[in-house]
Each structure stands twice: as structure tokens, then as C-alpha cells.
Amino acid sequence: MNKRYQRNFNFISEKEFESIRDKKIGIIGLGGLGGNILEMLVRFGFRNIAAVDDDVFDETNLNRQILSNEDNIGKKKSETALKHARNIDKEVNLIVYSETFTYSFGKEMLKDCDMVFDALDNIKTRLLLSAVCDEYGIPLVHGAIDGWFGQVCVMTDHAHVMEHLYKNDSENNSELGNPSFTPAVIAGVQVSEGIKYLLKKGLYLENKVLFIDLLNNMYEIIEI
Fold first, then answer.
1. Which one of 33, 68, 118, 168 has the fewest CB atoms closer than 10 angstroms to its CB?
2. CA–CA dist 44, 40 (Å, integer)
3. pLDDT value at residue 2
4. Domain limits, the chain
């Protein structure tokens, strides 16, 4: 086994590692959440990843998005993600798309994925993503952030959970902004929950929502 992964085997076995590292993982969004998710998945050892983001970096991303820097302002997030991932592991099979996520595109992109990570920033696209994952029966690791706050859920009962989370929300809700630490925290929990789910190890948040309030150190799990 490659020496780079030897520290993995203090908390999982080599057999467990081998059982999931070739799973195909989808990442929808490569901003604050998605950049951190990609970083963690590649460093953990996942070798087959598909990611999409149609945006380019701008200066407002510099405060929190791990893939952004002063030299790539104006460059596509997808292309930067590909270069970044291959600088970590040149053998990673990362396919990137610089397209708007639609239902039809999602059906093509995600048809052979074993798990998908939601790193989006709007409700409309989340609902489309949930519908695609529901059709294919793909577990969806949802994450959302706003200021000091965030939430994580591993969705297998997609429609029910999405309806519970967002039935009373609109895209006009006020935003609290996002600091550097909230995306990293929530992305870390998403990746942890995704790995636990794939391994069927420990207590994972299947159709349960973990609400995190970093300002007041409050953590609450709601079973849906």
C-alpha cells in the first residue's frame, strides 16, 4: 500500500480503505464547500471523482474558498480544481465540467456515481440535484452554510428530506455571509459522514440533519 495512506489505517483497516476508494464520487459545486470536499476526498485516497461548477473565481471568493488565490481571479473553478487535485495526486481520475447544473445534465453526469456531495448555494439547483439522485438511488451528502451556521445530512429519502428542509424557504432569504472556517467545518463533516456511510461504520446521519451553530457551540440532530 502506498506510504501516503499509512495514517489512514490508524482509524480504518486497509480492507475498508480498499473497499471504498474506487467508488465514483460526484461533487456539485467547487466553491467554499466543494473546494474543501475535493481536497479532503483526494487526500483520503478516492480515485474516481466527477465535479462541476460553471463559475469563475473573483475577489469575493478569497476570504473562504480554498481553491481561490490572487493568481486565478477570473479563471474557471473547474480547471483550477483539476490542476489542484493533480498536484495532490497525479493519478487521480478527476473529470471536471464547467457547465450549469440542470436535470438533464445531472442525469448524464451522475448516472454511474456511488455517492454525490451537495456543495451548492441555492435551493432551486439543490432540488434538481435531489431529484436526479432520487431517480438513480444515489446517496446525497447535503451541506449548507450561512455565517456561523451550517447543516449536514446524508439523504437517501431525498424528496422527503428536501421538502422538510426547504418547503418554507425562498431564495430571497437574507444571507449572513460566510467566513473562512464555516465551509471547512461543514465540508469536513460532510466528508466524514460520506465515508462512514460508505463503510457502514459508526453512527451516520442517514435522513437526519445535524445543525451546527459555531457562534454558540450548539449542535443538534433532527431525525426526519
1. 168
2. 6
3. 73
4. 12-223
Q: How far is residue 87's CA from residue 80's CA, in Å, rounded to a whole number?
A: 11
Angle (nearest 5°) at CA 78 between 72 and 169? 105
- Give the position of cell 480544481: 81
Residues lower than pLDDT 50 in the chain:
172
Task: Output the pLDDT for position 170.
Answer: 58
Report whether 110 contacts 99 (CB < 8 A). no
**How far is residue 214's CA from residue 185's CA, in Å, rounded to a whole number?**
9
Q: How many CA atoms lie within 13 A of 190 on its CB side?
A: 37
Answer whether CATH 3.10.180.10 is correct for domain 12-223: no
pTM for the model stands at: 0.96
Rg of the chain on CA atoms, in Å: 17
Contact 48, 24 (CB under 8 A): yes
Handedness of CA 39, 75, 64, 114 (dihedral sign): negative
Q: Which three cell numbers stand for residue 56?
A: 469563475
User: What three-state secondary structure class fits 192?
Assistant: helix
State the amino acid at position 129 in one-letter form.
L
Distance in angstroms (rounded) separating the CA atoms of residues 103 and 109: 10
